[in-house]
Specification:
protein xylosyltransferase activity; Hepatocyte Growth Factor; Spore Coat Polysaccharide Biosynthesis Protein SpsA, Chain A; transmembrane; about 25% strand; protein xylosyltransferase; disulfide bond; about 800 residues; five-stranded mixed β-sheet; 4 domains; globular; transmembrane helix
């Protein structure tokens, strides 16, 4: 039972949507706590030096203009709650020096001292305050003005290092890496670019990402200035856990024996855009300054857009919005970017704490995106306020028309934005920062664009040797058999296991001197990218021999072969550039991240089509045919004259019929192009088989007989033109041959290009299998040399890691 009567719309919605009883109880408890007795102070103390300015000092009554206001910084109308205290608190919250009340209900804020020539006798301000009728709140174009108690804030400007100045005591930096995902090789490359023996790396890996953590443990053992945090959290976008992660890390750093001067937080998506030497000189010149980037807009607008006045609860790896909350009064609120460069004295203060730190820490436990406001607000209100520099040392690739698509709705009850990945076309934007005080850029993703990272690294550290292997290749793990916290996609396991089985059968047939007894285990799966193009995926697996206890590891290079096919390449269809079905579409990056095409019976397929620009505006129709060749969905789309990538999700009955589906692109009643995709059966869990009667019901659910008849001639003509094979109806005998059926489907959708052996084994050297090419000798295998990402050794002269 909840500890109070929960009636708020947001709380009730969150309770209904939460899946576990534990999460429901947390939501109920916090909803009641915030409503009845908020667990944070109502008022905090502003501790920034203010030149002995006292708050609430009355300046008196002044004449105000109709058009030109005495306090033009900010205005709001508080119809029922305006009072001298409430207006003063509001203006102080925004960092204004002066507050003024006028016409009973109006509150004004500003920074410029009112002209004393506008001073009036107090009797000219004669209207009561609706929030406190014992007080006067100005009059008709007359205003009571007060000092808020803070000085006018001007952010400090960072000094430029002198070109010839040599520092005897250069700063030492802790790079605090907060990592998610599986881009291990890119993290290695980032560490190589930043590394110096005088610096340190403190690394937090999201608690759900075992693979990243295991791989980075290897370099922790090899390098003494790299340490992984054992206090791991699930750092979801916007989550309160990110602030906990950063504060835990700073606490560990203060208590460590490392001798450092600055901490800079970065992610796997960051990369330096100036040399290590340039960064050290700059920070040494600005020792003990603190670098944070402010929001750059009016504070009250920021509070609303950021949701600081909303209560959020984190559980089930999601931020649930459960209602409203009041901000503590008495302090200035600030915020912006959560990428920071903080000095050792300020970090010591954050960790040691006082009433300001403890009060704000409690408040931000129930706040969205806390790391984007906590450090800024502490800095503005602490004794360190004069060390505030409005610069987070980053250039960020914001393209808000693409990045603000509410893409985080699956993890937060809020509409958030995210920057775009830099691509090679953005190079000039990075190059133009050469004379600016920025030292890092984000975001970078090698599975999207490796060229920009290569160009940037050469710009910073010089050219690579001409014969450097796999300079433009990238491998990213998508499955490892040791992973625990993130459950593998069943479709991926089905594809990987089936392709390993097919490859094993082929090898057994081709090499007669030895027989493989069994496929023992699917070990890993990687996506493979070369010159910014997806080049297939790699499956690693273990096999046993019939005449030996020896096990061998093999790796096969596989490729999805179901692509869009244009049947009539004439105007306007000749504008069609790409035509596929996938399981997702990243609107921000305008691409699918599902390179392998993992579509299960419970996936909502996404149709992606890309068009070049042209003069004609026209309409195309998409017909979705299930594996029986029957019409399952009809959608029409208007193609504009500009180039575009667009996507659509058809309404298809679940579960999807397993097998090869076909989507026809029809223009003027002729099929101009088509694409196919595989709905993958699962061999890992019990699957759902659809009877003939169920199938008939499902396929008639959306489309009327009239529509089906209307498109029948188009479908028949298409089937005849390509001899479309359709699936037979399932029966009991069919179910008993599920493995063979899955394998037949998989090889109709995927090719196995090559297979290599990881490590030949002496005990089976007479077996022809061991004469397969060694994986390390190929250009495509995940075991192929990758010197750009390898952490090799420390250069004794420079103190950096050797690049190759």
């Amino acid at each position: 039972m909840p500890p109070c009567d929960i009636g708020g719309r947001e709380s009730v919605s969150a309770l209904h949507r939460a899946k576990t009883q534990i999460c429901k109880q947390i939501i109920a408890n916090i909803s009641c706590l915030i409503k009845m007795n908020p667990p944070y102070p109502k008022r905090l103390l502003h501790q920034c030096p203010t030149n002995n300015v006292k708050n609430n000092k009355t300046l008196g009554c002044f004449r105000d203009g109709k058009e030109i206001k005495l306090l033009p910084g900010y205005k709001t109308t508080l119809i029922h709650s305006n009072s001298q205290e409430n207006c003063l608190d509001l203006c102080l919250q925004s960092g204004f020096v002066y507050a003024g009340v006028e016409y009973g209900t109006e509150c004004f804020c500003g920074n410029e001292t009112p002209e004393w020539s506008s001073k009036l006798p107090d009797t000219f301000c004669d209207m009561q305050c609706p929030g406190n009728q014992s007080q006067i709140c100005g009059g008709h174009y007359t205003i009571n003005v007060f000092k808020t108690g803070v000085s006018k804030f001007i952010a400090r400007v960072a000094s430029e290092p002198s070109p010839n100045l040599k520092h005897d005591n250069p700063v030492r930096i802790v790079f605090l890496l907060t990592l998610n995902g599986r881009a291990v090789r890119q993290v290695y490359r980032l560490i190589k670019a930043l590394f110096h023996r005088d610096h340190y790396f403190f690394i937090h890996v999201d608690a759900r990402h075992d693979y990243m953590f295991r791989e980075l443990l290897k370099i922790e053992l090899a390098l003494s200035n790299i340490r992984l945090s054992r206090r791991r959290h699930s750092t979801i976008w916007g989550g309160a856990s990110l602030l906990t992660t950063l504060m835990d890390a700073m606490s560990d750093l203060v208590q460590s024996s490392w001798d450092w001067d600055f901490v800079i937080n970065l992610s796997e998506s960051d990369f330096p855009i100036k040399s290590n030497d340039a960064l050290v000189k700059f920070l040494t010149t600005n020792r003990e300054c603190n670098f944070v980037k402010s929001h750059g807009r009016e504070v009250q607008q920021f509070i609303q857009k950021q949701g600081l006045d909303k209560t959020f609860v984190e559980c089930e790896a999601r931020m649930w919005r459960v209602g409203e909350k009041e901000l503590p009064k008495g302090i200035i609120w600030d915020g912006g970017s959560d990428w920071l460069a903080l000095s050792r004295p300020f970090v010591n203060y954050l960790v040691t704490g006082d009433n300001l730190i403890s009060g704000l820490s409690q408040f931000f436990k129930y706040t969205l995106l806390p790391a984007e406001s906590f450090f800024h607000t502490v800095l503005r209100n602490s004794p360190f306020c004069e060390t505030y520099i409005d610069n987070n040392l980053h250039v960020t690739n914001w393209k808000r028309w693409l990045g603000c698509k509410c893409q985080y709705r699956h993890v937060v009850d809020w509409c958030g934005c995210s920057p775009n990945v830099f691509r090679f076309d953005d190079w000039n934007r990075i190059k133009n920062t050469e004379k600016k005080q920025v030292y890092f850029a984000r975001k970078f993703e090698p599975i999207i664009n490796l060229s920009i990272i290569d160009t940037l690294e050469v710009w910073l550290y010089g050219e690579y040797p001409a014969d450097l292997k796999n300079r433009m290749s990238y491998w990213q793990n998508v499955y490892h058999y040791d992973d625990v916290h993130l459950l593998a996609d069943e479709s991926l396991l089905t594809i990987g296991t089936s392709l390993a089985r097919v490859a094993t059968k082929h090898l057994t047939t081709s090499h007669t001197t030895c027989q493989i007894r069994s496929l023992d285990k699917l070990l890993q799966v990687f996506t493979y990218h070369h010159k910014d193009q997806f080049k297939g995926f790699l499956i690693q697996y273990e096999v046993s021999f019939s005449n030996s206890s020896t096990k061998l590891q093999l790796e096969s290079w596989c490729w999805p072969k179901l692509q869009g096919i244009i049947m009539y390449n004439k105007d306007p269809i000749n504008r069609l550039l790409n035509f596929i079905v996938s399981s997702d579409f990243d609107q921000k990056e305008q691409m699918s991240r599902d390179f392998i095409r993992l579509i299960s019976p419970y996936t909502e397929p996404v149709l992606i089509h890309q068009w070049a620009s042209g003069e004609q505006i026209f309409t195309v129709t998409f017909l979705w045919l299930n594996p029986y060749g029957e019409l399952a969905n009809i959608t029409s789309v208007t193609i504009e004259g500009s180039s575009l990538i667009t996507f659509g999700k058809p309404v298809l009955p679940m579960p999807l019929v397993q097998g090869i589906w076909t989507v026809l692109l029809v223009y003027e009643n002729v099929t101009m192009a088509y694409t196919q995709f595989l709905v993958i059966p699962s061999q890992i869990t019990k699957d759902t088989y659809i009877s003939a009667s169920q199938k008939s019901f499902i396929n008639k659910g959306q489309n009327s007989e009239k529509l089906i008849q209307e498109w029948a001639s188009v479908i028949i003509a298409f089937k005849n033109s390509i001899k479309l094979e359709t699936k037979i109806k399932p029966n009991n005998r069919f179910k008993t041959k599920i493995t063979g059926w899955i394998d037949s489907l998989i090889i109709s959708a995927y090719n196995i290009k090559e297979t290599c052996i990881v490590v030949p084994c002496k005990s089976v050297m007479d077996c022809e299998l061991t004469r397969l090419v060694k994986c390390a000798e190929t250009s495509w295998s995940s075991y192929s040399p990758d010197p750009k990402s390898d952490i090799i050794s420390i250069n004794k002269e420079s103190g950096t890691l050797n690049r190759f």
